[in-house]
Amino acid sequence: MCGIIGINSNKPVTGVILNSLKKLEYRGYDSAGVATLVNGIINETKCEGRVENLENIIFKNKNDGSLGIGHVRWATHGQPSEVNAHPHSSEKVSVVHNGIIENSTLLKKHLIRAGHVFKSQTDTEVITHLITEYLKNNDLKTSILKMLKRLHGSFALGIIFKDFPDIIVGARRGSPLAVGYGPNENYLGSDSYALKSMTNKVSYLDDGEFCFIKKKEVQFFNSDGNKINKQVLEVSSDDQSYDKGNFKHFMAKEIHEQPNTIKSCLKEYIDKINNEINIINFPWNNKEIKNIKLIGCGTAYHSCLMAKYWIEQLTDLEVETDIASEFRYRKNKFKNSQLYVFVSQSGETADTYAALDLCKKNKMKTCSIVNVVESSIARDSDYVLPIHCGPEVGVASTKAFMGQLLVLYLLTLKLSFLHDKISKENYGLKISSLLELPKLIENTLKIERDIQEASKDFSKAKGSMFLGRGYSFPIALEGALKLKELAYVHAEGYPAGEMKHGPLALIENGMPVVVIAPRDKFYNKTISNMQEVISRGGKVLLISNKSTDEISSENLWKKIQVETISDELFPFLITIPLQLLAYYAANALGHDIDKPRNLAKSVTVE
Ligand code: G6P
What pTM was computed for the model? Predict the structure, then answer.
């Protein structure tokens, strides 16, 4: 899972490639590289670490040309190092690759036997040697076709050549790839986002296709090598300033943006005059839907889990959730009465995309909930519900999670109404309560200081637990994930009622434990579970809502009370202290909060 950029221009391209690579770091940031053609010679510069390091190296040894490719890497084969960074070049070709070549070990053996010498431990290098080999006796198109036929797995490729100085080749199987059009120059990018500062005119390669990008034209071919035409689409322009404002990190900014992102999303979906939810024109007959399957990865999976509780509560539909990487390999029972909902911030997650693809092949009804509307998942689903929260830069998802929750709740309410499971009056009341959310989220953010104080103990802990029941359980999972991602502290999210079936054995003196206990029907039960933790030495941070009756704080380490809201909407508020907790714990440790170690924003390999 990596980022690719290619530019064929009549002006120097290195600076522009470096700027685009910085924007692509959300896809990987453990090494980076650029190759340009300078006076007919492939000039490659690579390094371990961030694009910033690459920039410093290039600044010292300028290698500018008017055609080049660049790459940011998230290591899959071979550790992050300069030699394993892309591009991988021979004297004749230079390759950047996103994805995994599954038969690389076998291909490498054959190539070594044919006399090729490998420099890196990557799967990608076989591509460099394969094309170099084919180019000895074939023209460019034939060499590309022959090389593509040998590769198994998923990939997006960008390739430049010593002997074809006006061509960048792009090829796609499995991993997305976009082509952009500019004045007297054309581009290649692992997504349209990479190209946004240069153009808003793009085409997307479909599986099996490849292209020749020249300065003034782009030729597209199908997997048989026949010329094809591609539609040119206009994507929204890059009007977002990727600026932290007064915040130290994007994550802090994104947490604080939530009252506004929720407000914008509500504006898109709520028709205040008619007190109605604007989720309309479904491409299927809603009455036919009897089951819903919600699919996602990471934080998006937690949104799915949250929606399961809402759908069960507010509709008669059967509902299941699935982690995309599991779903795609199981023996699934596809039924016409099923609606498949895919949740993904980026819309590019490889496993979620593969799960969508599987459903499409089985002719299922598909709906996606995404942040990036030009993404592969959005483009290929029957129906798209954007979350309207603007670009999310911090690798650990915050405002996108909140946006996913909101859209899933709106979809649930709408389906409940369309299936006659809720009265018009109750429907209207629930919509009106939603309109209060931005203000309540804003008020909840005022607990920041208290959370910052509590976070110190979490940053020093060996491990921690996040407990909740009912609606609070999926949020407990998300809170634990946030702490793992950012503070690198082991954290388990657990249903509070399940503690005594094993995890209670982990509780030892001083272990910090978050207990989420709103005043819902589970309140007394969760408080009893909390006491079980306290009596075994656990240091409990209780998160509840404000109420007239005081919470007994006997033996409690800390207590945070958020605004009062209906049980159904409590998850929106409880999310805030958990995001802040992880943020401040990581900050106290001096971690790279926007780019946590070993992770990437968009996971485009399985
Ligand atoms: C990565 C990110 C997570 C995200 C997950 C799913 O692991 O670091 O924050 O939840 O991918 O991403 P998606 O774009 O599909 O929501």
Answer: 0.80
